[in-house]
Specification:
Elements (H helix, E strand, L loop, with lengths): L1 E2 L2 E4 L3 E5 L2 E5 L3 H4 L4 H5 L9 E6 L3 E8 L7 E6 L2 E2 L6 E3 L5 E6 L4 H10 L8 E5 L5 E7 L2 E2 L10 E6 L1 H4 L10 H9 L2 E6 L8 H9 L5 E5 L9 H15 L6 E4 L8 H21 L6 E4 L1 H4 L15 H15 L5
Parallel strand pairs: 14-15, 14-16, 16-17, 17-18
Antiparallel strand pairs: 1-2, 2-5, 3-4, 4-12, 5-11, 5-13, 6-10, 6-12, 7-8, 7-9, 7-11
Helix pairs in contact: 5-10, 6-7, 7-8
Length: 334
């Protein structure tokens, strides 16, 4: 969406509050019909949200604030596809209003030359403030800016739906989610539709994603957030979700639960739920040339690539998912 002469990338609605603007990644009409996790938390978590603009003045000051959280909230600055230098690489966002000062690079023409030669996805004149995994409020901007041109942005967009693993939990930095990394590999834009702890595959989410015309290829991670919910509900959700996806002809990868070290009955449930996803993929999508099923174990199945909780991948695990999924997309035309 466009607001204050900026692109609020991956934001569908802004909601004014006393704390600033909440940046919702789903329209409120969808949020009102999904689970409470999305309604109360992850629908406004800012992984995948970027504030994009071009600078006419030498400096720009963004005003942001963070909700209280256990993790550091850091904004990462990119000039087009190129990460900012140490003076402009990252900025802390505090619980109080935080001034994020961004400077126009003095070597912009050199960056433009490199970007053109290497056919990079974004023009370096486009400032990208990549927001973190957490709830961030927007308060305003001070400086002379303008909107990027369409020609200065990528031609294609990758969309990723899934759990906290897709969303970016334990990626440590927003640009290291597998969604971000795959988009880089394809020189593409991206839309992060990850919902930590709340990717419960409601049909309304599938309908919404398919209704969007701003993505060209997608991946759908299914299962981990429903391990503690009844199997009949899980099966019904997967059945309806994949049926909706089967109505679309854009390239897509369907995957189930990644490798993890859950124990006992939970691991038995994981194994059953993996089979259920594959079963309904075969019924609703297997006949389509644009779709590909990739078992989660073929994307990540190495316990040394997990974090201490033994479920979420470490940085090495995220890189493993990105690498293997990128290769899997080679099986279909993206």
């Amino acid at each position: 969406m466009i607001f204050d002469d900026m692109i609020f990338h991956n934001v569908e609605e802004l909601e004014a509050t006393n704390n600033g603007y909440i940046m919702w990644r789903l329209p409120k009409k969808i949020i009102n019909h999904v689970n409470e996790g999305i309604q109360n938390n992850t629908g406004r978590y800012c992984t995948g949200v970027e504030l994009r603009f071009k600078m006419k003045s030498d400096k720009v000051k963004l005003i942001l604030r963070s909700e209280d959280t256990l993790e550091a909230q850091v904004a990462y600055i990119y000039y087009g596809s190129m990460q900012g230098g140490w003076q402009n690489s990252s900025k802390m966002i505090e619980k109080e209003k935080s001034e994020i000062v961004i400077e126009k690079p003095d070597n912009l023409e050199v960056l433009k030359g490199i970007s053109k030669e290497k056919k990079m996805a974004f023009d370096p004149s486009v400032v990208r403030v990549v927001l973190p995994y957490g709830a961030i409020y927007y308060h305003g901007i001070d400086g002379d800016i303008e909107l990027p041109k369409e020609s200065e942005l990528p031609d294609t967009t990758y969309l990723a739906y899934g759990s906290s693993i897709t969303h970016g939990s334990l990626a440590l930095a927003a640009p290291y989610t597998y969604c971000f990394r795959i988009a880089q590999k394809f020189k593409s834009d991206y839309v992060n539709m990850g919902f930590a702890g709340s990717a419960q595959m409601e049909k309304s989410i599938a309908d919404y994603i398919i209704s969007r015309k701003d993505w060209n290829f997608a991946s759908f991670e299914m299962g981990i957030n429903m391990v503690n919910l009844p199997q009949n509900l899980f099966e019904e959700r997967v059945k309806e979700f994949t049926k909706v996806l089967g109505e679309d002809n854009r390239p897509m990868i369907i995957t189930n639960i990644y490798g993890n070290n859950m124990q006992g009955e939970q691991q038995k449930t994981v194994m059953r739920y993996r089979e259920i996803v594959k079963y309904y993929y075969d019924i609703n999508l297997n006949h389509k040339s644009n779709a590909c099923f990739v078992d989660g174990l073929d994307l990540l199945n190495n316990s040394t690539f997990l974090s201490q909780d033994l479920v979420h991948p470490s940085l090495e695990g995220i890189d493993e998912i990105a690498r293997n999924m990128y290769l899997a997309f080679g099986k279909i035309k993206c």
